[in-house]
Design goal:
Radius of gyration: 23 Å
Number of domains: 2
CATH superfamily of the largest domain: Response regulator
Largest sheet: 7 strands, mixed
Structural class: alpha/beta
CATH class of the largest domain: Alpha Beta
Strand order of the largest sheet: 7-6-8-9-10-14-15
CATH architecture of the largest domain: 3-Layer(aba) Sandwich
CATH topology of the largest domain: Rossmann fold
Bound molecules: (3S)-3-methyl-2-oxopentanoic acid
């Protein structure tokens, strides 16, 4: 008898690892962005977009009747913070992770999720090489190869006499280093001359050395790849010390939270964008209306991309239920993670950033991009991205 019990216990213990671990109800989706540090200038906009998405999709019956729950984790601004956030979401049994904020963080944290077979949807990672991190890594944020050069063409249309270009970039940030390479190639492709390349750090606050070099170079155009805090201060000091020409900012300038940093001196910066609040599709109209109602302002790109990331996860989970005839919450977590990674690459989604899909490698396919000019309000702290004609 004792031998039978011992045998049964042994069989049970052997069976445990193979036993299905169901997905929780509501369905947990990890959302890991920076809500502290300088990078929170972006993360705050991402959180705003995510909260609208969570309420919106749950009001639309969630996953065919099962609600979703975003599990928020602060990544702060560095790699260690992103790694910790991802680790805790993976062990916290989420079906997918949306995040992190920076490409710099993605290169450190995404391999963890990839090894655990947890799909990652990058909401704002635009450096070259992100989808190639692994099979479980994808993004809905268009790479700067597709987006950034548009702003240079607009700058040339505004000032056909541009010849001498200064390029500046934050050398300690993977996105900025990637984007400046794309800018430099595009500048040469347009027949312009890069007269000097100036480097800085995202932690810098004093840019006197770099600005002096810009003024000495007699440039018609300054092209900056940095993040919102450093980028804003750099623009401010360029203007204060007398630079009068056009300024093109990269994706790190795509936050209205940069406006209080350069204040009235943000006026006129040109920025290429992967989102326009004016985009004419039903999801964007609903998103803009909800966002304006909640926050009394127009949604910025990072909020729209955060909403989009939640949307592609929700719609892919719905698609899995449709295809299998099973409820997500009756399925095994590991099985759902794998099925979700596949479904993300098979769907087509009408989102605030337009109709998008992901390639098998996880790269976003997006059709439309925009260029906007910063217009500051008389208060000198708020302003808007106005589509450049
Ligand atoms: C990246 C970016 C940043 C500007 C996101 C906030 O594009 O790190 O890839």
């Amino acid at each position: 008898m004792t031998r039978v019990i011992a045998l049964m216990a042994l069989l049970l213990s052997l069976a445990v690892p193979a036993m299905a671990e169901p997905v929780a109800n509501p369905v947990p989706i990890g959302f890991a962005v920076a809500t502290t540090s300088n990078v929170a200038l972006f993360g705050e906009e991402q959180m705003n977009g995510a909260k609208i998405a969570e309420a919106y999709f749950n009001a639309q019956n969630g996953i065919n009747g099962t609600p979703i729950k975003l599990i928020y984790q602060d990544t702060a601004g560095d790699e260690a913070g992103a790694v910790n956030a991802f680790q805790s979401l993976i062990t916290g049994k989420v079906v997918a992770i949306i995040g992190p904020t920076l490409s710099q963080q993605a290169f450190a944290a995404n391999p963890l999720a990839d090894r655990a077979k947890v799909p990652v949807v990058g909401p704002s990672n635009t450096a070259k090489g992100i989808p190639q991190i692994g099979e479980f890594v994808g993004r809905i944020s268009a790479p700067m190869t597709d987006v950034a050069p548009n702003s240079l063409k607009k700058a040339m249309a505004l000032n056909p006499n541009i010849k001498r270009v200064v390029v500046m970039f934050a050398q300690n940030d993977a996105f900025s280093a990637s984007e400046t390479g794309i800018f430099q190639e595009a500048i040469k492709g347009l027949g312009l001359e890069v007269v000097t390349i100036q480097k800085f750090q995202t932690t810098d606050t004093d840019f006197t050395t770099q600005v002096t070099a810009v003024l000495g170079a007699n440039a018609d155009l300054v092209v900056i790849s940095g993040l919102a805090a450093d980028g804003g201060n750099l623009v401010k000091q360029l203007r204060q010390l007398g630079y009068k020409g056009l300024i093109v900012g990269g994706n790190g300038f795509n936050s209205t939270n940069m406006f209080p940093v350069c204040g009235p001196l943000c006026e006129g910066i040109l920025v290429a964008q992967a989102y326009s609040p004016q985009a004419d599709n039903p999801t964007n109209k609903a998103f803009v209306a909800k966002f304006e109602e909640a926050y009394k302002k127009t949604p910025p790109q990072f909020a729209a991309q955060a909403f989009t990331a939640v949307q592609v996860v929700v719609e892919s989970l719905r698609n899995i239920e449709k295809q299998t005839g099973k409820k997500i919450t009756d399925m095994d977590l590991a099985e759902v993670r794998v099925a979700l990674n596949k479904a993300l690459r098979e769907g087509s989604f009408v989102t605030p950033v337009g109709e998008i899909s992901l390639t098998p490698e996880g790269e976003v396919v997006q059709k439309q991009f925009y260029v906007s000019t910063v217009k500051m309000n008389p208060d000198g702290k708020t302003g808007a991205f106005v589509l450049t004609k």
